[in-house]
């Protein structure tokens, strides 16, 4: 419940501090006095967008603060705890600051908060019915939302919408896969053929480099053998071979080393040279004997090299890259086959559709039950609002294709007069009738509201006489269960209030300022009399006003 509201430097309000009570409170005043400013200020606390023009002329910033009771509202305490915005037990404080540039700061229990958080909190705290609410009744979306709110299935409707989106995404994925499957069939065939061609080559690891080296060696085998043999002859076989000459040098120095021991190191080096040269000779002999000079093997190598080269030219790559290209194609083919697993996608789509249908059927059941009950209650309220013989119905029609918001369309039908058939609300209701139907709906919906505070902003525009009295009784009855605040211009409605506030304006230092003040019993008589007879009060209007207040006081 709203406990208090403080407004500073907002529009034409310099400073007001209001304490609220339970029950039905009416707010009245002359046109232009600023009756709706209170509602605008509260709306800002509940997440509406701020504007710099809302700051009072001459002030730097506007400040709005409200205190709510959260006793017996565990869902609010849970939300506050979840968002780390908890404060004193049983009390919720909201604060909004707006500067001239339009920038604003929001606080919940003294801690910085976002507009989204304010809006989420507002859904727990206040339900506002504006005077132009009937204009939105023409929209199918509004009619659906009202029915779901009455059925208590708003959360389920959101789940249905989410399930529908998931189903559509799954269906799109399957459709895309089928399209890609058709478009990529040629690509898969091409890859399969190319992979088969390279696989038939039976490529070995690093085959091109190894084969090229072997081919070069075999193609030059005669020269290699001849050169190796010549080296052996030079080192060992000829009369003046290197080893023969080295032996002569070793023999001479060996004799001289007895004369000069310093030659011993040199002889040791020569011994090492002799040993290494002999190793070279042995190695060259083995090398020459191992070289294969088979012309048939050479021809086979040349055929293999030519096959690899021609295949590489076909795909415009280097022969050494054939193995990598084969692996790349195999990876591409695997990716194509994985992306078009239509069977798996079809199963996923069916699962999403099943989840959607289960939730949508549950929603449909709640809507059918609520539609019957809501239609009856709205029709009953319409009868009270001087629409005798009128009828009201909510028609649910199955959709050919399950929709984003369920499996049926929802349309409000009305017969404004006896003997006429039910037709869509937008096509048969006049402005006055639509206003009364809107009020009847708002009253019925409010009776099942979960929020503790209901605000009605001049919903009685265009209504008068006995109907206005009925509206006052309706709102007074709501005040037995909720905290109700109504901005009204009708004395019949104002006289039904348990509390009565008056909005006035006055000039001060060249500015027009708005004031809101509670009225006592005598002041209420004067205000109701003003509403009945205008600026000039007569004894008759005073007596009539007193009578109206006395009559309604018995029911408070």
What's the short story on this structure?
The protein is built from 20 helices and 15 strands. Helix content is 56%, strand content 19%. Strands 2-1-4-5-6-7 form a six-stranded antiparallel beta sheet, with helices on one face. Strands 8-12-13-3-14-15 form a six-stranded mixed beta sheet.
Features:
alpha/beta; 19% strand; Rossmann fold; 6-stranded mixed sheet; 15 strands; single chain; DNA damage; 6-stranded antiparallel sheet; 556 residues
Give a structural overview.
The protein has 556 residues and is α/β, with parallel strands linked by helices. Among the domains are: 1-125 and 452-463 and 479-519, Rossmann fold; 183-336, no CATH class; 520-555, no CATH class. 56% of the residues lie in helices and 19% in strands. The protein is built from 20 helices and 15 strands. It has helices at 35-45, 74-82, 115-125, 133-136, 140-151, 154-183, 185-200, 207-219, 221-237, 242-256, 263-290, 295-314, 322-339, 342-384, 425-428, 431-446, 465-478, 491-494, 521-533, 539-553; strands at residues 2-10, 13-19, 24-29, 61-69, 91-99, 104-108, 111-113, 126-129, 391-403, 406-415, 423-424, 453-457, 483-487, 499-508, 511-518. The strands form three sheets. A six-stranded antiparallel β-sheet has the order 2-1-4-5-6-7, covered by helices on one side. A six-stranded mixed β-sheet has the order 8-12-13-3-14-15. The protein has a three-stranded antiparallel β-sheet with strand order 9-10-11. A hairpin with a 7-residue loop joins β10 (406-415) and β11 (423-424). α6 (154-183) runs antiparallel to α14 and α9 runs antiparallel to α11 (263-290). The two termini are 19 Å apart. The relative contact order is 0.13. The model has no long low-confidence stretch (mean pLDDT 85).
């Amino acid at each position: 419940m709203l406990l208090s509201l403080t407004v500073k430097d907002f529009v034409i309000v310099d400073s007001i501090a209001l304490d609220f009570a339970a029950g039905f409170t009416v707010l009245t005043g002359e046109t232009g006095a600023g009756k709706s400013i209170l509602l605008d200020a509260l709306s800002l606390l509940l997440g509406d967008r701020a504007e710099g023009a809302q700051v009072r002329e001459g002030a730097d910033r506007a400040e709005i603060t409200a205190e709510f009771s959260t006793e017996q509202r565990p869902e609010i305490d849970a939300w506050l705890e979840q968002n780390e915005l908890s404060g004193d037990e049983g009390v919720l404080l909201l604060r909004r600051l707006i500067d001239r540039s339009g920038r604003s700061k929001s606080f919940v229990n003294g801690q910085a908060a976002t507009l989204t958080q304010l809006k989420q909190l507002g859904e727990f705290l206040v339900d506002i019915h504006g005077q132009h609410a009937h204009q939105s009744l023409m929209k199918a979306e509004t009619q659906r939302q009202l029915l779901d709110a009455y059925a208590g299935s708003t959360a389920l409707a959101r789940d249905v919408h989410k399930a529908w989106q998931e189903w559509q995404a799954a269906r799109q994925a399957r459709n895309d896969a089928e399209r890609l499957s058709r478009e990529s069939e040629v690509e898969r065939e091409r890859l399969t053929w190319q992979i088969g061609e390279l696989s038939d080559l039976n490529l070995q690891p690093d085959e091109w480099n190894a084969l090229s080296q072997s081919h070069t060696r075999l193609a030059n085998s005669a020269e290699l053998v001849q050169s190796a043999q010549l080296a052996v002859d030079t080192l060992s076989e000829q009369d003046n071979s290197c080893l023969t000459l080295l032996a002569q040098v070793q023999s001479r120095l060996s004799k001289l080393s007895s004369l000069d021991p310093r030659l011993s190191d040199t002889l040791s080096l020569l011994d090492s040279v002799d040993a290494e040269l002999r190793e070279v000779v042995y190695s060259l002999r083995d090398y020459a004997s191992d070289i294969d000079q088979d012309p048939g093997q050479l021809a086979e190598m040349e055929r293999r090299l030519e096959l690899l080269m021609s295949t590489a030219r076909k795909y415009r790559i280097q022969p050494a890259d054939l193995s990598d290209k084969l692996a790349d194609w195999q990876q591409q083919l695997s990716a194509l086959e994985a992306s078009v697993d239509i069977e798996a996608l079809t199963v996923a789509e069916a699962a999403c559709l099943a989840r959607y249908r289960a939730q949508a059927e549950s929603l449909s059941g709640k809507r059918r039950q609520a539609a019957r009950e809501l239609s009856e209650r709205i029709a009953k309220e319409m009868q009270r609002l001087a629409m005798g013989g009128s009828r009201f119905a909510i028609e649910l029609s199955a959709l050919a294709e399950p929709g984003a918001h369920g499996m049926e369309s929802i349309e409000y039908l009305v017969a404004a007069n006896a003997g006429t058939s039910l037709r869509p609300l937008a096509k048969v209701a006049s402005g006055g009738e639509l206003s009364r139907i809107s009020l009847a709906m708002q009253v019925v919906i409010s009776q099942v509201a979960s929020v503790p505070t209901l605000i009605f902003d001049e919903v009685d525009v265009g209504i008068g006489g006995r109907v206005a009295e009925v509206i006052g009784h309706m709102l007074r009855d709501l005040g037995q269960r909720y905290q109700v605040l109504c901005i009204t211009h009708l004395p019949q409605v104002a006289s039904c209030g348990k509390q009565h506030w008056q909005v006035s304006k006055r000039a001060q230092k060249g500015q027009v300022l708005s004031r809101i003040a509670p009225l006592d019993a005598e002041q209420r008589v004067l205000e109701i009399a003003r509403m009945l007879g205008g600026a000039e009060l007569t004894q008759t209007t005073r007596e009539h006003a007193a009578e109206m207040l006395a009559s309604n006081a018995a029911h408070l």
